[in-house]
Write a structure and sequence with these properties.
Layout: H1 11-18, E1 31-32, H2 33-50, H3 60-71, E2 77-78, H4 80-93, E3 102-103, H5 106-112, E4 122-127, E5 130-136, E6 149-153, E7 156-157, H6 158-166, H7 177-185, H8 187-195, E8 200-206, E9 212-218, H9 235-251, E10 254-258, E11 265-269, H10 277-290, E12 295-299, H11 308-316, E13 326-331, H12 347-356, E14 358-359, E15 365-366, H13 368-372, E16 386-391, H14 398-406, E17 412-416, E18 425-428, E19 433-435, E20 442-444, E21 448-452, E22 468-469, H15 474-479, H16 483-493
Helix pairs in contact: 3-4, 11-14
Length: 499
């Protein structure tokens, strides 16, 4: 049982990465209105009967209105991309569930593999109502350097652009922070999906003196690759490359590094699903104890969640008291019938329900183990020093269970920005895919609602707020350094206090 990871990291983020610059893919294949109506009816029926929190943030009357509104957006014929971005994505946004997200069909992904298409020419970082250049697809351009503030594109202001894009993305409640990251991860594709391609872009920007200027940028068209990677045949070299690749693969999930000063260590943990984490935890906390490391920076800014039992194990190394995973975990049904054939796994989902979910007096099907069991802290190699936990928008799902359990503890400082995962609760545990019968568009469908431990003290609709708030730094963005990490390191090095 697990909370599944969505972005650059999350499901919508994966959607972005897989369909980068794909504006004209499958334009010759259009589905007629009967096929689209059929897919829409299937999705609506599944959402209404199986989604655990369809009306958590949006009333039934309002959802009924949105179902009808987006049904009327279906045209006589539409491509997969049109159906996704004009109908499905904005509909799912109204549920305010970060785990309910849309992905392209596998067929569409296969068709677009290794193909390159025209795109908006600038990579932008967005936050609040601000957009700044972080990359330029045209290296010969001399105007738009890293850090240039963009004021408008084709007459649409930066605040309007960001606000419009947010209407197409899933999120827990109203925690926008994760979607600022998602938009920033592939702004050209997102701008294409929402506003369409233009032959030319009229871009208004601020120069280094604060003057507002404008210029015209042509659409960016990628050329064919002219350089092919050479193939090495040396067996020894290949063996070393494989070994290095394995190391890189494992460290992309997790790593521990003791600073040369000996005053702190940095643990980066990007998931609770991969990377042989149980062994990593055991070895890491043993290393910290043996080296007398009393300050630990735990970086989970890109941790989108994963296995709940692994997240719980990690919490045991930090918590100074007994804790629960959640106050309530329940589903509105004990089966995915009569829609089993639309779910990946099909009957396996029903079998899973039969073993773990029990009906209670409220009519819901509960995972009682997570609701009633208190977990005890680790004794051996328990971390008793000061932990600085870095969080951000992509801190999601099971990683928020960890943060919630230790927040407020005397030796814990939560640092950074609001998490993307809901503080009050979210939906997850089982998150199978639903494949629509005609377009084969896929929708992630969480089957359980999770209400956080001690949820009475938490703000419904928001993410977890840090103890030490460090917002996006324009100077750091422009110069390319990690402001949040820099601040925490300085806090540790400038302090003489040790437990």
């Amino acid at each position: 049982m697990r909370f599944l990871y969505l972005s650059f990291l999350f499901c919508v983020a994966l959607f972005f990465l897989s369909c980068k610059h794909s504006s004209v893919i499958s334009v010759n294949h259009k589905f007629d209105s009967k096929q689209l109506d059929s897919d829409y009816f299937v999705l609506k029926s599944i959402l209404e009967s199986k989604h655990p929190s369809l009306y958590w943030y949006t009333s039934k009357d309002s959802m009924d209105y949105y179902f009808e509104y987006y049904k009327n957006k279906i045209q006589d014929s539409m491509t997969e991309q049109e159906f996704t971005w004009k109908v499905i994505a904005p509909l799912l946004n109204k549920i305010h569930c970060g785990h309910t997200s849309v992905m392209r069909s596998k067929e569409n992904i296969k068709k677009s593999k290794n193909k390159k298409y025209p795109s908006f020419p600038l990579e932008l970082k967005v936050w609040n109502d601000t957009m700044a250049v972080i990359g330029n697809l045209n290296p010969k351009d001399s105007i738009f350097k890293r850090g240039t503030i963009i004021k408008s594109i084709n007459g649409v202001s930066s605040s309007e652009i960001i606000s419009k894009m947010l209407e197409y993305l899933s999120e827990d409640g109203y925690a926008h922070n994760v979607n600022y990251i998602r938009i920033s991860s592939n702004f050209p594709a997102m701008h294409n999906y929402v506003f369409g391609l233009s032959e030319k872009y009229n871009i208004s920007y601020s120069d280094t003196f604060g003057n507002i200027l404008s210029t015209i940028l042509p659409i960016f068209v990628r050329g064919k690759d002219t350089i092919k990677d050479s193939i090495k045949t040396d067996s020894v070299l290949n063996t070393k490359k494989i070994e290095i690749a394995k190391i890189k693969k494992i460290t992309k999930y997790r790593s521990l590094q003791i600073d040369s000063s000996g005053q702190f260590a940095i643990m980066r943990l990007n998931t609770f699903s991969n990377g042989k984490l149980r062994n990593f935890f055991r070895r890491s906390f043993k290393t910290l104890r043996k080296n007398h490391i009393f300050n630990l920076i735990v970086d989970i800014r890109t941790n989108g969640g994963g296995n709940v039992s692994t997240s719980t194990l990690f919490t045991k190394y930090f918590s100074d008291k007994k804790f629960k995973v959640a106050d309530s975990v329940f589903s509105k049904s004990k089966t995915v019938k009569p829609y089993s054939n639309y779910f990946n796994g099909k009957w396996l989902n029903n079998l899973g329900f039969a073993f773990v979910a029990k009906r209670k007096s409220d009519g819901q099907y509960h995972l009682s183990r997570y609701e009633r069991k208190y977990f005890k802290p680790k004794v051996k190699n328990h971390f008793n020093g000061h932990a600085f936990v870095l969080i951000n928008g992509p801190t999601f799902s099971a990683s928020c269970l960890f943060v919630n359990a230790i927040k407020g503890q005397h030796n814990i400082s939560i640092v950074g920005e609001e998490s993307g995962g809901g503080w009050y609760g979210n939906n997850g545990i089982f998150i199978p895919e639903v494949k629509l019968p005609n377009t084969h568009i896929r929708v992630n469908m969480p089957l359980f609602r999770v209400v956080q431990y001690q949820h009475e003290n938490q703000n419904k609709g928001k993410g977890i707020w840090p103890d030490i708030y460090i917002p996006t730094s324009y100077d750091a963005l422009k110069k390319g350094y990690d402001m949040k990490m820099k601040v925490v390191k300085e806090m540790i090095l400038n302090s003489n206090k040790q437990p």
